[in-house]
Known about the structure:
single chain
Amino acid sequence: MQVRSLEIPGVHEFTPKSFPDHRGLFAAPFQEAAFVSATGHPMRLAQTNHSVSARDVIRGVHFSDVPPGQAKYVYCPRGSMIDVVVDVRTGSPTFGRWVAVRLDSVEYRALYVAEGLGHAFVALEDDTVMSYLCSTPFTPAAEHGINPLDPELGLPWAEHLAGEPVLSEKDSTAPTLAEAADRGLLPDYEACLRRYERLRAG
């Protein structure tokens, strides 16, 4: 397993070895030892999610309150996507910045998205599947979103779209990052740091 920490603290990329043969292919996108080595704590698993998206579907930018927070470990078992993580933690040294990684069913690369970070992706082909390992259950009252087309964020959709972006009504009417900050919806960086320390302390 190759592991890379990305430019935003709390985001790690994991690339497993693949083992193809005459039957097909085997890969292990999540491996606990590599995860603990990168993050300093085990992955708590409370829920798994599975989404199927058509070409040009954008999902996100989604994040949750901290506490409770929801960390995600995501990979693409079918199709391909551009996965984006946005730092929406107020007070963070990388606030408003984002990283983008291609996830697909060729390399089975995975991303860990720590509590308090925003997550989104665009599907690059029909029937693209996203698999999520989530640290906490879905809690509607604690879930929020940022409009993925917020021009101030400048997320890299245009270069990957074949046509017009396809969004849910919830995502298309979500506030911009600045509006979410004005409304007090964004996670606090110091609260997130305390959460990460509690995880490392067990």
